[in-house]
Amino acid sequence: MTDDRNRSRREVLKLLAAGSGLLVFPLGTLLAGEREAAGDGARAPYWAYAVDTTRCIGCCACMRACRDENDVTAGVFRTWVERYRIGFDGEVRVDAATDNGYVFEPAAGEVARAFFVPKLCNHCEKSVCNQVCPVGAAFNTPDGVVLVDQKHCIGCGYCVQACPYGSRFIDPKTHKAGKCTFCYHRLAEGLAPACVHACPREARIFGDLNDPHSKLSVLLRQRHYRLLKPELGTHPKCYYLELDREVV
Amino acid sequence: MDFVFPNEQNVTWTVMIVLYPYITGLVAGAFIVSSLYHVFGRTELRAVARFSLASAFVFLLFAPLPLLMHLGQPQRAFNIMITPNFSSAMAGFGFIYAGYLIVVVMEIWFVMRHSFIERARGAGPIAWLCRIILLGNAHEDDATRAADHRIARFLAGLGIPMACLLHGYVGFLFGSLKANPWWSTPLMFVIFIFSAIVSGIAVLIFHYMVVARLNGWRLDQPCVRSLAKYLWGFMIIAVALELLEVMSIAYKQTEEWEVLGMLIREKLFVSYVVLQYLVFSLIPFFLLGINSLFSLRDRVANAMVWTAATMLLVQVLLMRWNVVVGGQLVSKSMRGFTDYFPGLWEKEGIAVAVVIFTLPFGILWVFNKIVPLFPEAVPRGGSASGTK
């Protein structure tokens, strides 16, 4: 009995020590910057994403990191980077990087402005892909991530048709719906998505909308941003900072 | 205009998903013809009343096959009924399909019970099979015949909204997708129903005339004439609705017309403008129109009606292709188009599609061996009624 009591006292002390440690070094501080994934613990996190289009240099490190982290099948993409080149005559040329980067062809006329736009699943609040899934395999998690239950998906492709952003695909290997998961397995470990981690320019920002002090929340208060296809009422949670009007 | 999102390089819904609404359309159309006789008393359609009901049944049996061929995980197909997500239009498929199948099977049972009883009297495997179908009740008198007729009529009436629901729901699957400008229209639901009726009547005319010729039967001219008039009327409504839908987008000149106009002018010009409208709509329209408005010799009229029906079968298939595939050719980036044409031998290719489409005709042949689908067919030059 005495041993048991002592052990429980020791455990209580350990818990107190751990708790005070958390108070002194809040998790939000530990995971500062890009590693805001774990939230501050005050409220349940609500994850969202921002892309700073003024910072992306089109290096595609994010694409490679995503493919490595999630073992994405060749030929389909959980994320990609679009390159926009707009001529003085107003002509817009768009292409997306393959796994080998961009194709550099001889310039056809002078370029007035050019920029890169990383794309991924918008993890919409009112995700139409989830709405149309006939078996309920697609779902929104309480922390704001749109996922697919791979053990339940029947591979009908209705979600692929419904997604306005081209973010979903039928995986040629598994024959099930695939998409960006915000690297949910990494979030569970308090890590940011692989693409965010890999970006050398901090053009990809991930964070908790419920935390007013998160980098994402601060940026959304301070900067101009646009959503993709907001008229469809999907309420996307991928915010594009300083996005050019040519991008859809 | 050459950028498509990287995940749009290959279309997701293949020729199998073209075939699926095509077959359900045949079901709905054939059923409506049978109901014209059983419910609305169009007695001139008596010659094809049984045949149309049986056609609806066999096409219905094969309607899910292209879907199963398409599913990435066909072994999980029943998830659609076990864990349906009712916010999805597609979740209704299993229930609508199963409900309609039950109605059609029951109607066949009551309409053909007399024939099953007759066949059950003999010996051999067919008689044995008929006894099973009859569920052990081979009793028949005036009262049972009257009851059978009443119930069959009720089921035929119940089947009309269900047929519209089955096929209208397929149209709704496409029309409700706001991400796709080529599909997203409330008219899609109505267009699908009318084109279904067209294809259903067309397949009955096509098949009836082929079967009659092969068996040396005299065609029931009032029946053919009536079917041809219905076909003409319904094709006018179907084509007018399809044209209205495109014309309204074109006239409004919205942003989406920039890409849809290009889709029509470039990617779908042959299959949509030339084939679907100019060849396979316009020619049948004139053939059926002349046939309906002028008094022609039977031989000429029949040739025209058969040609028009066959062409309209192709027209509806083209319409399905242009909707299903056409909608997927437009990139959601609205900056380009992808391409698609099925391979001959691939899992979701042309050969499989042809086999799936041919199978119902084979089953119909077997059906006819069990109970005659044309019990009152008359040999050419003969006068007595026969049961071939």
Q: What does the secondary structure layout of this molecule look like, with pairings?
A:
The complex is a heterodimer of chains A (248) and B (388).
Chain A lengths: L1 H23 L2 H4 L16 E6 L8 H10 L8 E9 L4 E5 L14 E10 L7 H5 L5 E3 L5 E3 L9 H5 L6 E2 L6 E2 L5 H4 L6 H5 L5 E5 L6 H8 L2 E2 L11 E4 L7
Chain B lengths: L14 H24 L7 H17 L1 H7 L8 H4 L10 H19 L1 H8 L4 H9 L8 H34 L11 H29 L1 E2 L2 H32 L2 H13 L1 H11 L2 H12 L4 H32 L20 H21 L7 E2 L9
Antiparallel strand pairs in B: 1-2
Helix pairs in contact in B: 1-2, 1-3, 1-8, 1-9, 1-14, 2-5, 2-15, 5-8, 6-7, 8-9, 9-10, 9-14, 10-13, 10-14, 11-12, 12-14, 13-14
Descriptors:
A: 248 residues; alpha+beta; four-stranded mixed beta sheet; three-stranded antiparallel beta sheet; 11 strands; 26% helix; disordered N terminus; B: 388 residues; mainly alpha; globular; disordered C terminus
Task: Give a concise summary.
The complex is a heterodimer of chains A (248) and B (388). Chain A has 248 residues and is α+β, with helices and mostly antiparallel strands. Chain A has helices at residues 2-24, 27-30, 61-70, 128-132, 158-162, 184-187, 194-198, 215-222; strands at 47-52, 79-87, 92-96, 111-120, 138-140, 146-148, 169-170, 177-178, 204-208, 225-226, 238-241.
Task: Describe the protein in words.
The complex is a heterodimer of chains A (248) and B (388). Chain A has helices at residues 2-24, 27-30, 61-70, 128-132, 158-162, 184-187, 194-198, 215-222; strands spanning 47-52, 79-87, 92-96, 111-120, 138-140, 146-148, 169-170, 177-178, 204-208, 225-226, 238-241. In chain A, strand 5 and strand 6 (146-148) form a beta hairpin. Chain A is of the alpha+beta class. Chain A is built from eight helices and eleven strands. With 388 residues, chain B is mainly alpha-helical. Chain B has 15 helices and two strands. Chain B has helices at residues 15-38, 46-62, 64-70, 79-82, 93-111, 113-120, 125-133, 142-175, 187-215, 221-252, 255-267, 269-279, 282-293, 298-329, 350-370, and strands at 217-218, 378-379. In chain B, helix 1 packs antiparallel against helix 2, helix 1 crosses helix 14 and helix 9 (187-215) runs antiparallel to helix 10 (221-252). Classes of the chains: A alpha+beta (248), B mainly alpha (388). Chain A binds chain B through residues 75-77, 80, 82, 92, 94-96, 98, 119, 128, 130-137, 152-158, 160-170, 174-176, 232-233, 248, and chain B through 3-9, 12-13, 67, 70-74, 76-77, 79-80, 82-85, 87-91, 93, 173, 177-180, 328, 331-335.
